[in-house]
Amino acid sequence: MNLMSLTQNAARLSAVTGRRLEAANGLELIVLNFVDEKPVALGVDTETDQLVWCDVPHERLPDIKETIPGIGEAYGLTLTWSWEMKNQQGYFDAVQIEVTDESLTKSVLLQFKVAASAIRVFRVVETH
Questions:
Q1: Which of 71, 84, 104, 106 lies deepest, with the highest CB count within 10 Å?
Q2: Kind of pairing, strands 27-34 and 92-100?
Q3: pTM, entire model
């Protein structure tokens, strides 16, 4: 299962888990977990400083909601939009997802961006 298929299937996000880097402020791997769907994993290619879709590890990774404030608000919401983002040099360096409730009144935008060979997690907020 890939992110586009999960979006088309309106999968519900159940958790985001990850493996933290000891030497850097970020993650070396994140796993997006969904209700009744196979999870998808993002890692970092340290040679090119890009994101890569990778195999989900067999080990159980900790939920990152304990260290990333507000990410738990996305849990239980439906994957409505997803983006694979490339920078001006053509490097795949970010994934963004939007999850919403059924009425589309609650929306959470999360971005997973690689910088300095570590995945950083952002919550994108609309400003007026």
A1: 71
A2: unpaired
A3: 0.93
